[in-house]
Amino acid sequence: MISDLFAGRFRLPFAVASLVIMCGTPAALRGYQGERPYIVKRYDTLWDLSRRFLDDPYNWKLIWRENSHIGNPDLIYPGDPLTMPGRFGEKSASVHTVKTAKADFAEAVNGFPDAEEFAATSSLFATVADKADVNPANANYASAEKGRYSAKHLARVGFLWTKEDAKGLVAPGVAFIDEKKTKTFQLFERLPIVMIDTHRFSVNDTVDIFESLTYLRYRREVVNLVKRVGRARVESVDGDRVLATLFEAWDVVRGKCRIAPVERFSSRTVERIVQPRTSLSGTVFTRIEGSEIPQLHQTFIIDRGSRDGVRLGDIFEVRSARVERADPSLLGCVLHVGRQSSTLSIMRLYASRLEPGDTATLAKRIVFRED
C-alpha cells in the first residue's frame, strides 16, 4: 500500500497520503459532526437545544456564542436561524433505557451537575458496578457514591424566597442594579448599584447577584422564585451608589437584578448512601426550568423543608399523582433546603413527566463530607 502511494497508483495529495500512512482514520475524526443549521421551533430553548445537539444542557452558552445575532439567550423565536456547534461522537443512548447494572451506573453519572467536577469519576463508577454484590435495583442509589457537588453548583440552585425587603417587596438583597431590565452585562463590566437598605458595602466586598424568575402563591402567601446568577466585587462606594465589577456569571445578568451580601458555600463530597430512619413525603410544587419536558440536572421544588426534617442530600422518589401505584418517574437530590420548601436536582429519569402535585417520598440519604 505504501509503495503504491509513492508509485502514483493512488493519486492522493502527499499530505493526505502521509496522514493515512501515519494515523489511519482516527476514531475521533470519524465520529466528528460538524456545524449544522437549525430553525427555531415553538417551545425551543437554548437549554433544550444544547441537550439535544450537544448532549449536555449546560453547554447552552456554546450555542449562544456560535450565534452572535442572539442578543438575549432567553429570547429566541420560532423561525430564527441558528448554527449548532459541531461535536465529537454519536449521541448517547436514551437515559430511559437500562440494560445492565454496569450500564445503569454509567448512565447515572449524568445525574451529577458538572462533568469537570468529578475527577476520575468513570473509573470509580466502574469499580462499584463491577462488584459481585451489586443489585441492579439499587444501582441508581449506589451510583451517587463518590460524587461531588461543587460550592458553585450549590450556590446557583434556584429556591423560594419568602422574606420582605426594606421596601416591603418579597425579594432578596439590599440593593439592585440600576439599569433597565433589558440591559445585559458581560464579564468584567461594571454594575451600577443602588442601595435600598441601611446595609453598607465596602470596597473589595463580594456580592451575590439574584434574578427573580417569577412570583408565585405558596401556602396562601406570595413567594419569589429566585436564583443566583453571578457575583461581583465592589470597586467604589459613594453614599447609596455603588460600582461593582462582574467577575462571575452563571446565567444572564441583567438590569434590576438584586444585590445581596455574599453567602459562602462549601463543596461537598459524597461519602456514602444510607437508609433514612424516618419516613417523609410531600408533593411537587413547581419546576424551575421552563422546558416542555423535564431533563437531567434540571430542578424542581417540593413542599417540605427543614422544619419537616428535610436535609441536604436527601434523595426522593417522585411518582405521578395521576397513576395509582405508579412506578417512580424520577429520582431527585436535595441541593437547597428552606424552612418550608426544598429544591431538588433531577439525578435519574424514568419518564418524561414531572407535574405539580406529584408525590415525593424520601428514599435514601447522602452523607456528605464537607470540603
Could you characterize what this model shows?
The protein has 371 residues and is of the alpha+beta class. It has 4 domains: 2-88, LysM domain (Membrane-bound Lytic Murein Transglycosylase D, Chain A), CATH 3.10.350; 101-153, no CATH class; 155-261, no CATH class; 268-370, Rod shape-determining protein MreC, domain 1 (Thrombin, subunit H). Helices cover 17% and strands 35% of the residues. It has 9 helices and 21 strands. It has helices spanning 2-7, 14-23, 27-30, 46-54, 60-66, 101-108, 121-129, 139-142, 151-155; strands spanning 32-33, 36-39, 81-84, 87-88, 148-149, 159-161, 175-177, 184-185, 190-195, 206-218, 221-238, 241-249, 253-254, 258-261, 268-274, 281-287, 299-302, 314-319, 328-337, 342-349, 359-370. A hairpin with a 2-residue loop joins β11 and β12. α4 packs across α5 (60-66) and α6 runs antiparallel to α7 (121-129). The protein is globular. The model is unreliable at 1-32 and 88-146 (pLDDT under 50).
Task: Tag the structure with descriptive keywords.
six-stranded antiparallel beta barrel, 4 domains, disordered N terminus, alpha+beta, 9 helices, 371 residues, globular, single chain, 21 strands, Membrane-bound Lytic Murein Transglycosylase D, Chain A
